[in-house]
Amino acid sequence: RVSTRSARPERAARPARRAARRLRVLLAEDNRVNRKLVTKLLQKRGHQVDGVENGHAALDMIVSASPGAFDAVLMDVQMPEMGGFEATRAIREHEAETKAHVPIIALTAHAMAGDRERCLSAGMDGYLSKPIEVNDLIATVEQLGSGESRPTDAAASSKRPALFDEQTALAYTGGDRRLLKQVIKLFRADSRASLGRIDRALRNRDNEALRMAAHTVKGAIATVGSPAGR
């Protein structure tokens, strides 16, 4: 993995329990575990979150809503049917007619060299790397969603423990033990189907299906605190 320098907004170690302004956020994420986690973390801050599973659905939500209905969009880069970059470009084309602009934040499983440029060329305003650190998520969404300017490169690059431990897992839920249990339970419920998709892709020698299935498993594993997902 190629390391990237992160230019994060200034933030307190423990943000206030509620945001100063309630935002409406569109979350496009095909992984149920990640979608659950991000949704709950933002809802605890008082924000409204509309979750969809792919880029097509995100585009439909933006097009059908009135201009300015959403304060920010969290857009997973790799999704079935329509990925995050393609969806972002389509949203920007729609906004060329409405004269609106919604901040779009990429969610990517890797912090790789060139991510910043790819985000910019696709029309995104920033990105966060998975597993998402709760304070980075809050700071990025609330600054961009409130109309504050910030650097485009917002990938989380802090060092993490080499081994799984409870504190690492809790860091991804903002210290919420009940939410962590819910996320782990959801991960366990989904894992059998995910492994089944990998098995079928291997048997069918379907490289694209294997890549997508492995990407989903990797993202979910990282979210529950395992170094295997990083």
Summarize the structure.
The chain is α/β, with parallel strands linked by helices and 230 residues long. It is built from eight helices and five strands; from the N terminus they run E-H-E-H-E-H-E-H-E-H-H-H-H.
Textual characterization of the structure:
Helix content is 47%, strand content 10%. Helix 1 runs antiparallel to helix 7 and helix 7 runs antiparallel to helix 8. The longest helix is centred in the last third of the chain and has 28 residues. It starts with 23 loop residues before the first strand and ends in a 7-residue tail after the last helix. A five-stranded parallel β-sheet has the order 2-1-3-4-5, sandwiched between helices. The N terminus is likely disordered.
Task: Give the helix/strand layout.
Elements: E1 24-28, H1 32-44, E2 48-52, H2 55-64, E3 72-76, H3 84-98, E4 104-108, H4 115-122, E5 126-129, H5 134-145, H6 166-171, H7 177-204, H8 207-223
Parallel strand pairs: 1-2, 1-3, 3-4, 4-5
The radius of gyration is 17 Å
Compute the number of strand runs: 5
Categorize the overall geometry: globular
Round the mean pLDDT to the nearest integer and report it.
81
How many helices? The count is 8
Order of helices and strands: EHEHEHEHEHHHH
Q: Work out the helicity level.
A: 40-55%
Query: Which structural class do you get from the secondary structure elements?
Result: alpha/beta
- Strands of the largest sheet, in order across it? 2-1-3-4-5
Major beta sheet, specifics?
A: 5 strands, parallel
N-to-C span: 10 Å
Low-confidence stretches: 1-13, 154-163
- Proportion of residues in extended strands: 5-15%
